[in-house]
Amino acid sequence: MAPPFVFPQILRALEEDPEDNHRLFAQNIVDVTSLRPSDLEEFVKGVSFDLSDRELFCVEDQDVFDRVYSLVRSFFSLPPSCKCNLVESLRSNLSVLLPNVDSISRSVQDQEDEVPIIDRITSHRNALKIYTFFLLTIVMTEESHISSIDSTKVAARGRKKQIIQSWNWEPQRGRMLNLIANSLEINLSLLFGSSDLDENYLSFIVKNSFTLFENATILKDVEAKDALCRIIGASATKYHYIVQSCASIMHLIHKYDFAVVHVADAVARAESKYSDGTLAVTIIRDIGRTDPKSYVKDTVGADNVGRFLVELADRMPKLVSTNVGVLVPHFGGESYKIRNALVGVLGKLVAKAFNDGEGEMSSKSLRLRTKQAMLEILLERCRDVSAYTRSRVLQVWAELCEEHSVSIGLWNEVASLSAGRLEDKSAIVRKSALNLLITMLQHNPFGPQLRIASFEATLEQYKRKLNELEPSLPTEHASKESTSDGESCIGDGEIDDLHLEATSKMHQDSLSDSCQPENGEEISEKDVSVPDIGNLEQTKALIASLEAGLRFSKCMSASMSILVQLMASSSATDVENAILLLMRCKQFQIDGAEACLRKILPLAFSQDKSIYEAVENAFISIYIRKNPVDTAKQLLNLAIDSNIGDQAALEFIVNALVSKGEISSSTTSALWDFFCFNINGTTAEQSRGALSIICMAAKSSPRILGSHMQDIIDIGFGRWAKVEPLLARTACTAIQRLSDEDRKKLLLSSGSRLFSILESLITGNWLPENIYYATADKAISAIYMIHPTPETLASTIIKKSLSTVFDVVGQDEPQPDTDNNKVDILTPVQVARLSRFLFAISHIAMNQLVYIESCIQKIRRQKTKKDKAAAESQNTDENLGATQENNSINAELGLAASDDALLDTLGERAEREIVSGGSNEKNLIGECATFLSKLCRNFSLLQKHPELQASAMLALCRFMIIDASFCESNLQLLFTVVENAPSEVVRSNCTLSLGDLAVRFPNLLEPWTENMYARLRDASVSVRKNAVLVLSHLILNDMMKVKGHINEMAICIEDDVERISSLAKLFFHELSKKGSNPIYNLLPDILGQLSNRNLERETFCNVMQFLIGSIKKDKQMEALVEKLCNRFSGVTDGKQWEYISYSLSLLTFTEKGIKKLIESFKSYEHALAEDLVTENFRSIINKGKKFAKPELKACIEEFEEKINKFHMEKKEQEETARNAEVHREKTKTMESLAVLSKVKEEPVEEYDEDEDEDEDEDEDEDEGEDEREDVSDSEIVDPSMEESGDSLIATETEIVDPSMEESGDNLIATEIEIVDPSMEESGDNSIATETEGEQSDTEDEQSDSEDEPSDSEEEPDSEQCDTPNPRSLNQKTNGGEEGESESKSTESSSNIRRNLRSRSRS
User: Which residue ranges does the record annotate as region Disordered (predicted)?
Assistant: First the structure.
């Protein structure tokens, strides 16, 4: 008997001689690589013959084993034929061996002699091991060889490819692996003595199987993948190889994303085949025991684990539902990918794990509670911190709605939650919320029509029916009971299909004509018979369902305003999905959806192609019907209800659809039928709407109008125009859209009639005031479009209009002396006529300007065409040289340029003659312009008639646009009106005109740039909005340079009106796209300007945050760090320091930015005393620590310490300086009070000369005594001393003069002590020196010896010379010279006594 075969660690280990000689090993190895091809082929044939001819156990023979081993060892070097022979021999032997194993197990019971059976079992076990080992080794060798070849190909891609001889390996691999999988699935317990197989045997198979699982190419082979899944499932489940298999599976999941689905498939197959979920449970528990923090770093592993869990829940919902509790704690982890996966797992479980209705009531109740808990978790996760998780939850809810796994009771909660997520800050969450609402509408259980009025009417009827079924119960109690019953049935999530069918049937029966808006009010009043659905309980359940449907309808209707906001989103997905949801809402007749859909029309101008396509598709699906008449009616109703902006968008869409053929010729014919009143019931308004759509279509296909020109004149300007005045305006538009051929036909057939009609429109008074201006605009444009000489007809119109105004004035005032008299007697009727006249003449002037430019362009085109034809006729072989010579001569002489210059001169002259005329004469419009200029300066009159002022200023602006000299002479007037006009309409119109003037005459408007920016501060919302629009247009189109007043536009970002704020943000957003982002260069200037404005801190912060957010480049951010740091040195205000530091904290810092900030420390170190400045720098430091590398992080920490140190030092310096200042003031106060106390204590000598002098002395003594009484024995505290908390002791008493409290100076002015006012004002402290004291003594002696001077001469001397300044004493005392100060104070007291003597003598 052969020795047993033991699986080696590696193939070459079989060549080693075992010490105990108790295992099979290779002894006589043949080096097949050294054999010749023929010899090698013979060698392989011999091995194959032995394996096939001899018994299955011959592989145990040493000779056969050695030869097979030799071939397997060098298998990759064998030729394909030899490989195929060897593999087929081994595989066929193993396939025959496997049935013998089963036969052994059956024959064991019948055999009495155990010895042959044991030998046979041993031989079978040995052969099974050997065949399995060699086959798996061949598979691993071949796969390794193929992988090395593939890597070599990649490395040598640029070199010449080698021809590689290959064989059909893939089918062989699949068969071999399937055979090994079959070997594990048979009963091997008899061969190995127990149900647990040989450890080496099983570990070898499992190890190599998981290694093959790491190869994505093998997993693409279905046969090989299935075999590997069977091997893994049998090893782990049947043979209890759980621990090692789980470890290998977790390794696969974490490292190889392509293997996740296949691993889940293998686990699920093992559970279904062996009815044992131990492998799945073990893996789930291993995942649950994993630390959630580990998934934060391993994002790829977290993603793969999450996908595996979702796949497992999809394949094994019941098993996962019983073990999901170990996964729930991961909802508290930081990895959003794991939370996303768990949300997906719960969704799969809710949809699939609880569908089995069998079982006891207790198990049903448990399953229902488990399902309810999962649903609550899903609702809670809608408020997850991660946008990805919130989005995933909404996607799961959409999947549950599609699976009909959401109960009616939970339906409204999900709908309201989804509607709330429409305002989420993340675009992906908003997209998922929109898709969820679309899905909920598609799968709603309440019926195809969700109008609120319909639900309310039907609900009311069923409530009455319920009251009839319960006559004994009061109404309120019945409604409450029905609601509670409904809620209870909703909570269970189970409502019979009968109720849902009855609900939809009820909708189809009672709401059959709810599509018509006019029937909406009748629904609630109409007594519609509701179907009888059965007993009391079913009626209650139906009422609960109706109430749920009503809440759902109201929830969807309430979200319309949010959808309108989303259509203005910068995210294209928001716009597209909002349009889709609105279309679905219209389909289900949600209230408000129709009005919201009208607002998608302006999106047709979007630059995003996907948004335009979404708008176009929505337009086609809503308004383009199969029936042409219905389509025409839809379109004309849309045109009637649209405003100017919507009409422009509608025209754009209609043009596109006509060019694509979406609007057919039959639809156009139906529109003509509506216009010509060929359809019964057509109104004048519908006729006008039909003509509007036809005009829109004619822009891309002008021939549409040619067949009905006469109808346009007859109907558009006939009696129907008086019924619908706007019809005349639309007819004028149609005339302008005629093709050139149709225009010629019209002029020949009805030209004079048409022009007389247009003239009457302009000069007549039958049009209403609010319609006249738009109609006259179109009529004048039509005249200039089709009339051969429009200026002649225009002059006639002006004269006629002029006569209708001023002839009436002449009748009212026979003797008009001056123009002022004419203006003063204007009546309201004349004001209206004058306004119309001014509008007509100004619009004619504008059209004349356009007409002149078109004529010039036409002449140039004709000249170019003529020159081209002449050049082609002369470019023959004979004349080619002469032509080139003539062209060169003309170029040298400048003849071609002179023709263009002459044409330009003539054009400029013609334009100038419109308003200004010649030097000595003025034409008709010029005379009116002079009158208009004077009229606009008559502010007192125009204030009485604001309508006249609006028309006059509009006409003035048009004349200014036409003529430069007229513009220059009236610019001051225009800006005066735009700033001071009481009417915001006038200011708003003038603001818009400023934009046109800036485009036409930029040099004239350049000095007034500041005044244009000043309109951004206007009190009127419309003026500010127009100013933002005008300045945005000028700046973004490079018609105005971005001046230093751009900060005014920045302030508009925080305007109280949301529309203005949005426009300002849009301006800066578009400005940031130009060139290298001009905001980068403007930001320091804006920062400086805003810092000097009295803005609220929140406003400043929001503005700077938005502006800095528009700067994306790292280089610009780094440069801004340096620029903002340098601004610290130029300012001294703490508020500006704070603003600069806050702006710095908003920047996105890179490593270079942090280094520049550290290097610029000297420029801002003085500002670190402010707490807010330091806090802003600390926030910068915290940002830098997040991305810094270890080296930079050390520098940042050192910088942080430096910041904190300087902050504390600056705070201490400030505190020290403040204390020193307080101490200095206290010292001055103390010395002053000490001097005064000494002076007042010394007695004053008295001289009795006469009674008058005695009286004076008595008065002086009384005053002195009063002062001493006030001061003595009293303690008075100086306010400055109270604040500092210190007290001063002046000799024996503490004295503070009340005057010091009021003035804040430490000086006391008494009759004895007089302070020089000039010294107080200048704040200088004079120092009395000894020489000054001597001079004062000398002067006193002289004054004693002189005759009695007058008071006027004496008092100035005493103020200037005799009275010392107490501040000088303070300074001397501060110097520390106490002796000198005492002597000088004594001298000063003697001077005071002398002064008193001189006063007493006088």
Answer: 469-490, 506-527, 1210-1402
